[in-house]
Each structure stands twice: as structure tokens, then as C-alpha cells.
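Example protein
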Amino acid sequence: MNFSHLRATVAVIGLAMLSLAAPSLAQQKLGPPAQSAPAAQQAPVAAQAPAAPAQATSSVAVPAGSASGMADAVAAPPEGEGKLLRPTATGGLRELSPWSMFLSADVIVKAVMIGLAFASLVTWTIFIAKMIELTVVRRKLRTALAKISDARSLAEAQFALGAKEGVLASLLAAAMREGRLSAGISSDAGIKERAASRFAEIVRAEARRIRLGMGLLATIGATSPFVGLFGTVWGIMNSFIGISKSQTTNLAVVAPGIAEALLATAIGLVAAIPAVIIYNHFSRVTKTYLELVNRASGAAGRLLSRDLDRTHGGSHSRAAAE
């Protein structure tokens, strides 16, 4: 009886041990629990997005596919957001060509630029006109001096020149006029002095005529840089006012206004530099031409002196013969 009770007790204990060991054996055959895999996959997600809320990290029952999708979503921003950010970054850029800067400049800066462009146009117009004029008058004067080089009197020189107009023809006409007005006067020195005074007036008038336009070149060359600088100062002042209103120091915001202001100085230099160079060139060419005019004045004075000597020499010979 005691033996049967002992055997029954052992059987009950064995069944209890088998019931306790059965779940552990089943878990070993099936592998680790399903919740361990999401926990391992959630660790990189927490590392990539440390700013996520605490409820997201405390979740346990998350499938493996959804965990990888969450990692991709945290790593890459949404496509719509990126598309919105890119146009915002590039849409504010402005084209900085000279024409666009002129159009977007202030009214006063535009007026300065237009005035300087007009001054540059005037400079090149004077250059073309004076170059043609000086070339023509120098050639004509040299040809006229060559024609009267062998003349022995004022009348012969006028006949050689013909009806052509020019400074040499004016000098010969002034000498003839003074000779007629001084007829009957025996003082050759007085006639020559009055003729020289007429010649000086003609030379001065020719110098004023040939220098016409050079004063404007000098004015443009001297004042254009300062006019452009005025436009630059005005434009930079407006740029600083715009910076204070926008409350930003971003170079993309500051650069266009400063570039527009500096364009005025650039146009001022474009107008001033050629004006100074052209003025210096014409100063040299004009000086050469005026030397030719003085040569023509001397030639007319010599012809007048010969006519006076012939006239007074003939009168003296007739008086001696009588």
C-alpha cells in the first residue's frame, strides 16, 4: 500500500515536470520570440531619429516591414518637401546683366546712366567730325601753300589759288585790301604792321573755329567720373536703406543693388577715358594745323612786302629819272 502511494506520487511529479518543460522545448524549436526582432530593428531607428517622441521607442509589437519603412521615412524627407525647398532657394536669384541692372536701378541712377551714355555718344560724334574736318583742312592748306610757293606777287598768288575758299585765300585777300586802303602812303612799315594785325585776327579766328568742340571733350573727360560717382553713391545709399528694411545681410540680397550702383561709375569711366584720349590727340593735331596757318600768314606777308618794294622801287626810279 505504501509502495503504490509512492508510485502514484512519482507519476504526478513526472507529469508536472513534463508540463513545465513542454513550452520551453517548443520555443527552442520555433526560435526566438517575434518581439525581439522589432526591438533590434528599432535601435537604428532610434539612433537615426533621436528627436522622436518617447511613445515611438516604447512600442514593442512593430512588424519588421513597418520598422524598415519607418527607418527610410526618417532618413529621407518627403518628396514634396524637397521639391518645395529647391524652388524657394533658386527662385530668388536675379539676372545681373547690364540691361537688367539698368532697368531695376533707381530713377536718379537711371538718369545718370542715360546722361553719361549721351555724353559718350557726343564724344564719338565729335571725334568722327573733327577727324574728317582736320584731315580735309590740312590737305587743302598744304596744297594751297604748294601752289603759291612760286608766286611773285599777291595777284599772281590769288590767280594760282583761283576761287577756292580757305584760310590762305583770306590772308591774301586781307593783304590786297590793306594795300588798296594804304595807297598813296609811303611808309611801308605802317602798311606791313596793319597787314600783320589783320593776319593775326584771321589766325585767331581760324584757331577758334578749328578748336570748336574740344572744350566739350575736356568737360566730358573731367566731369564724367564724378557724375558716375554721384550715381554710385546714390545707388549704394538706396541699397543700404533696402538692407535695413529687409533686416538681412545675405549677399544675394545685397549684391544686386550695389552692382547697379557700380554700373554708373563704369559708364562714367567709359565716357571719360575716350574723351580725354581724343582731346589730347586733337590738341596735337590742332597744333600742327595752326603751324601751317602761321606759315600761310608768313607767305602772305612776304608777298605783300614784295609788292610794296616793287611799287615804291618803281616810284623812286621814276622820280630819279625825272
